[in-house]
Structure formats: C-alpha cells, structure tokens
From TrEMBL:
Part of the tripartite ATP-independent periplasmic (TRAP) transport system. GO terms for cellular component: plasma membrane. Keywords: Cell inner membrane, Cell membrane, Membrane, Transmembrane, Transmembrane helix, Transport. The chain crosses the membrane at residues 18-43, 97-118, 138-158, 165-182, 202-225, 245-266, 286-314, 326-354, 360-383, 403-424, 430-446, 467-485, 505-535, 547-568, 588-612. It is a multi-pass membrane protein. The lineage of its organism: Bacteria, Pseudomonadati, Pseudomonadota, Alphaproteobacteria, Hyphomicrobiales. One of its GO terms (molecular function) is transmembrane transporter activity. Residues 36-157 form the Tripartite ATP-independent periplasmic transporters DctQ component domain. It comes from the Bacteria. Its main location: membrane. This is TRAP transporter large permease subunit. Residues 199-608 form the TRAP C4-dicarboxylate transport system permease DctM subunit domain. It is found in: Cell inner membrane.
Length: 618
C-alpha cells in the first residue's frame, strides 16, 4: 500500500527514532487534550448551563496540531497509502529511481508546507479567532508538524544509496528543467498550469507517491507555474481543510476502535456471535458480516473495523479449513457494505465537504447497508462451509463473559444513536463520550485496559487519524485550485447538459462510475472531497435528493476502494489477513458484483435511502 516511503529492512537513524517518539507523544497528548476540552465543554454546557465560548476554537487548533504530528509519525513508519500496482511492475532500476524521486518530492512538499505554515503564523500574529484566541496558535503547531514530516522525509532520502539519490534528483530536476526550457523557447506552446497539474498528479500517483503528497504536489504545481498565488495560500487551504469541529469526530471514533480492541470488547462480541450462529452452514461468514455491521456502528473507521474483525475471524477461517483468500474477500466486501453504517468516517467527510446533514446521512445509510448485508449473508449461507467444519472454530470460553462484552458494546452503539436523535450533543461530542465510555469500560468493568495500553491507543489513533486528515487537508488544497479554475462550474454544466438530453438515470450511472474509478485510484476520503462538492449540487439541480445521492456516492467509492487491482482497501485487508492479493481477486469480484447490483437498486429506488431520514425528520 505504501509508495515511496521508508526502505524495508533498514533501521532509521537514532535521531529519527527520537523524533518519532517525540511526534508520537505530541500527537497523542494533543488528541487527549482535545478529548478533555470537548467532554468538559459539553458537561459545563449541559449540567451547569455555562457554555465555554473558546472550546470550539481550542478543539480545532488542537486537532490541526495533532493531525500534522500524527501524519509525521505515519510518514516515519511508512504507513502512507499509495498506488503500488504500477510501480511494483517496473524494472528494478526504474523502481528505485521512482522511489528516490518520490522521497525527494515528499521532502519538497512537506518542507514547503512547513515554511509557509510558520510564515502564516508570523503574518497572523496579533489577529484573533472569533472567541478572542490568537490565530497563530493554529498555524505554528501545523508548521512544526510539517517540519517534522520534512525531517522524516530527509531521513528517508538519506537512507538510500547515493546512486539512487542522485538518480532521483536527476529525474526531478530534469523534468523541471525541461518545462523551464520549453517555456523559454516556446512560451505559447508550453503546457498550461492546469495541464501540468493533472499530468504531475497522474505521474506521481502511478509512480507510487503516497496519495496525500500526490494531491498536495498537484496543487503546488499549479501554484508554482501559475505564479500569482503566494505560498501561504497553500498552507492556509491545508489548514482550512481540517480546521473544522465536525472533523474532530474522525480521530475520536478511530480512538474508540483502538480502545475496543485493547479493552477486550471486540473479542468478546465476535466470540459471542460465533457461539450464536457459528454452527450453522456458512456460520463463520455470517459472523464476519454481522461483526462488520456492529463494529461499523461503533468505531467509524473501516480499516479499524477490518483489523478488529479480521484478526479474530481470518485465523478462525483457517482452523475451519476455509479458503483464507475467500475469507479476506468477504471481509473486504463486508467493509464496503459497512461504508454507510454510522458513524462511518466517509459519511462525516462527505457531510462536511458537501454541506449535508451528517445525522441525515447516518439515517439514510442504514437501510442500504441492511440490504447489502442481507445479500452477503444469503450468499454466505448458500455457498458457506458445512456446519461440522465451521464448528471447529467455535470458541470455548465463558458464555457469561461473552454476553457481558456484547451488552457493553451494544451500550456504546445505543449511546451513539440516542445522542444523535436526542440532540444532546453533536457527532463530534458523541464520539468524545464514546471514547470516554470505552476507556471506562476497559479500566473499570473488564480491567483489561492499563495506562500503557490506553497511551498506545492514543498514539495509534493520532497516527491513523493524522494520516486520514492529512489527505483531507491536501485534497482541500487541490479542491481550492480546481475551484479557481472553475472546474466545478464546468462539470456542473456538462452533467446537467447530459442529463437534460438523456435523463437523470445517465447522470446517476456516470456518478457511480466516476466514484468507483476514483475510489480505486485515490484513497476514499480524497475521492469524496474532490467529487462530492462537484456532483451533489448538480444532483440537487436535477431533483435528486442530496441525502440519497450522498449514500450512493459513498457506496460507489467503497466498491472502488476495495476493487482489484488498484483498491487500497483490498491491499489493507490482505495485509491484515496475511493473504496474497492474487488469492482474493476471484472471490472479491463475485462479492463486488453482488454489491454493485445492490447499489443499482439503491440508486434507482430512492425510498431505500430516504425512508428513515423522512421518518426521523431529516
């Protein structure tokens, strides 16, 4: 999944290891402080009628800092997702040159972001937020985190052989020199900034550059070539992309997923499901689908769900003599199904970028997810393992212990849904209380969550959420450039024209195709950030309900995310299940075909998506 990142098998320098420990601590500490601020603000507002005016500004500032320090830690560990399909098939020499060039480009992007974020902090000194807090408090932590990313990128570059570094430099500088020479010799024939931006994005993506850096570099190419935009605009747009209280639900729900795995809730719930339905035909597969349904209603993060469920059930599938490739394929298909089960992170992101009700999206996603889950369960039973073989994987632990874990887990799900419906708190505030609940359960009820384990959960959550939010920030910088070029307006006119001549059904099919393809090429959040604001307004002009259309987009993106050969989510599932991707391609195509048929039904029967939102007043 990772593109041009750290070299496997070579240890980082001691200085880099020390810096990694520091970024881990800073990212986790800022996330913990954010949790305290949000929970304290809700309690003061609800119990003592004493709202804290500065809490939102502080929470957003802490999130920006935590995101960039977490992204730095992810970069140091080589966790940044990128398209490895093409680069893996290059000759060894070309691949090494591409990796070296990618590492150099990561250094350039992160250093440029750091410099301009720090510069923006200096320029905004003396300005304040709406609550009176210094505005530079947002930009200085962002600049420090980006500077750490630059240092890690430099370490990745320097750990390569000198010959590869030179080859990478020649590649990067050669391309830049070629454009400069072209522009000097024949300026009228030189490619435009938009063309170079798109070409740079395509080439770096194929070359294995991590998604976030490819998006940011594309925006930077336009800034550099166009020449009239100051560099601080780039840093400002990256900060603006994640400086929103709504997005704080992402790190909190990811934290809930890690805490559930550490405090034993995940294992207890899965074992109970195995006890209840594991002996039926295809029981283990039914358990896998059901577990993904339940976990998606708790942690919000698809890869956290895949890790929690797969780490327990893939070994169980091997014990029951199932094909592990087919088990991983079903796990991936179940993750697609769970894309619209609240509190899915991609629903939150789409609601933010397309200005849709997040509560409404949560309600709209339930019945479509139920339809897809029912289809997967039916196929699992029809083609599943015989009950005698499946019984070999049934756990033998205490049923009471399993029921306790299940009841506690359902309590967390109830908290999330009751919180949304009652209006007691926003999605972000509910996610904060869900994290507090998971900590309390692990420490006081199960007594399995030590302080060290909780600290590791905060580090993992800050790193993973930093990875996601860095992609969101980079995609925002590119979306800003696209808006400057009036691309959304052009797309809207084109799509409306097509629909007026051929009907809204063609617009719906084109939208599905775009999200499947781009969801496969890009990380899911990036595809939604770029295309959600483009397509949702057009759908509204054509009379398509935005909540219904939003659910369709998220499902289509999920199919692309787990579709071979490029889908990054499928690579992640294979890594978790320790299965070569070649073993999953045939079964995953069958499952995705089934889900695609479900998607068409959902797309052309709006009542499936809109019944619950209408019933609950959205």
């Amino acid at each position: 999944m990772a593109g041009a990142v750290a070299l496997p098998g070579r240890a980082a320098r001691p200085a880099a290891q020390a810096l990694l420990a520091a970024t881990d601590v800073l990212a986790a500490a800022l996330l913990a402080a954010d949790l305290v601020v949000v929970i304290g603000s809700v309690l003061l507002r609800s119990l003592f009628n004493a709202p804290v005016e500065w809490s939102d500004d502080v929470a957003r500032g802490l999130m920006v800092g935590s995101s960039f320090f977490g992204a730095a830690s992810a970069l140091a560990r080589g966790e940044n997702p990128g398209v490895a399909f093409f680069v893996d098939r290059m000759p060894t020499g070309i691949r090494r040159m591409a990796d070296a060039a990618g590492a150099i480009l990561m250094l350039v992007v992160s250093a440029y972001a750091a410099w301009n974020a720090l510069k923006l902090g200096w320029l905004t000194t003396g300005q304040t937020t709406g609550s009176g807090l210094p505005l530079e408090w947002t930009f200085y932590p962002m600049g420090a985190g980006a500077a750490c990313m630059a240092l890690f990128s430099a370490d990745i570059v320097m750990r390569r052989p000198t010959r590869e570094i030179v080859a990478g430099l020649v590649c990067v500088l050669g391309v830049a020199a070629l454009y400069v020479a072209w522009d000097v010799v024949s300026p009228d024939a030189a490619p435009s900034a938009r063309t170079l931006m798109l070409a740079g994005f395509a080439l770096t993506l194929v070359g294995g550059l991590p998604i976030g850096f490819a998006l940011a570099l594309a925006a930077l190419i336009y800034v550099w070539v166009e020449g009239s935009l100051p560099g601080v605009i780039f840093a400002q747009q990256m900060a603006r992309g994640i400086d929103n209280f709504v997005l704080l639900a992402i790190p909190f729900f990811i934290l809930v997923g890690y805490l559930m795995e550490a405090n034993g809730m995940s294992v207890r719930l899965i074992e109970l499901l195995q006890r209840l339905v594991g002996r039926m035909r295809g029981g283990l597969n039914v358990v896998m689908v059901t577990a993904m349904v339940l976990f998606s209603g708790i942690s919000g993060s698809k890869m956290a769900d895949v890790a929690a469920v797969g780490s327990v059930l893939i070994p169980a599938a091997r014990r029951s003599k199932q094909n592990p490739g087919a088990a991983v394929a079903l796990l991936a298909a179940s993750a697609v199904m769970a894309e619209t089960i609240p509190p899915c992170i991609n629903l939150i992101i789409l609601g933010f970028v397309a200005n849709l009700s997040i509560g409404g999206l949560f309600m709209a996603g339930l019945l479509p997810a139920g339809l897809m889950a029912a289809a997967l369960v039916a196929v699992s039973i029809l083609f599943g393992t015989k009950s005698a073989e499946a019984a070999e994987a049934i756990p033998t632990g205490s049923a009471g212990r399993m029921w306790m874990g299940a009841i506690v887990s359902f309590g967390l799900i109830a908290m999330i849904f009751v919180g949304f419906k009652s209006g007691f708190a926003t999605a972000t505030e509910i996610s904060a209380f869900a994290a507090l609940y998971a900590i309390a359960v692990g420490a006081a009820v199960f007594r399995e969550l030590s302080f060290a384990q909780a600290a590791r959960c905060f580090v993992h959550a800050a790193t993973r959420s930093g990875l996601v939010l860095f992609i969101v920030a980079a995609a925002q910088s590119l979306a800003f450039v696209l808006t400057l070029q009036q691309v959304p307006h052009a797309v809207a006119e084109m799509m409306v024209g097509i629909s007026q001549t051929s009907g809204t059904w063609l617009f719906m099919l084109l939208s599905i195709a775009i999200l499947i393809v781009m969801g496969s090429v890009l990380e899911g959040a990036a595809a939604l950030i770029i295309f959600g604001p483009l397509l949702v307004p057009v759908a509204g002009q054509l009379g398509i309900a935005p909540l219904h259309f939003g659910v369709v987009l998220v499902i289509a993106m999920g199919i692309g995310l787990f579709a071979p050969p490029l889908g990054l989510g499928l690579y992640g599932a294979c890594l978790i299940g320790n299965v070569p991707i070649e073993q999953t391609i045939k079964p995953i195509l069958g499952y995705l075909g089934l889900l695609f048929l479900c998607l068409l039904l959902i797309a052309f029967v709006p009542a499936i998506s809109l019944a619950l939102p209408h019933a609950f007043g959205y």
